[in-house]
Design brief:
This protein has four helices and six strands. A hairpin with an 8-residue loop joins β3 and β4 (50-53). The N and C termini lie far apart (51 Å). The radius of gyration is 16 Å and the shape is globular. The longest helix has 17 residues, at 90-106. It has one domain: Aspartate Aminotransferase, domain 1 (Alpha-Beta Complex). With 126 residues, it is an alpha+beta fold. The protein has a six-stranded antiparallel sheet with strand order 1-2-3-4-6-5.
Length: 126
């Protein structure tokens, strides 16, 4: 999976929105309901490095792999940075992104989740 494919995958998740933050952050953020689940660095020297939140039990395992490290500033919150997404197995990357998206979604209120997913109950009629 290359950068363009990963960007498209993130954007296609239900309720996903992307926002580009200019200097000094220089990141392309993906969020759901205002909760961030992934981002790309958009400036050199770290252009297109990809960061996302991972499950507590996966953090140490993943950061021990070559090309993956704790995310700068967010590592203490179990965010990792993948230096080259093309070198990471696509199916595993999709699973990690889906987990991060679901984790962000689960932090929203039930009503907000239902609105995003379109699973709300039908309105009652008298």
């Amino acid at each position: 999976m290359d950068t363009a494919q990963l960007k498209a995958f993130c954007a296609a998740l239900p309720g996903a929105e992307d926002h580009e933050h200019a200097a000094p952050a220089n990141i392309l953020v993906y969020s759901v309901g205002g909760r961030r689940f992934a981002h790309f660095k958009t400036s050199a020297p770290e252009r297109w490095r990809f960061s996302l939140k991972v499950a507590p039990e996966r953090f140490l395992e993943l950061t021990d792999m070559p090309g993956i490290r704790p995310a700068r500033w967010l590592g203490r919150h179990r965010w990792i940075t993948i230096v080259d997404v093309a070198a990471f197995p696509g199916d595993q990357l999709r699973a990690l992104v889906e987990w991060s998206w679901r984790h962000a979604l689960d932090r929203l209120s039930k009503a907000r989740r239902e609105a995003i997913l379109g699973t709300g109950a039908a309105p009652r009629t008298s």
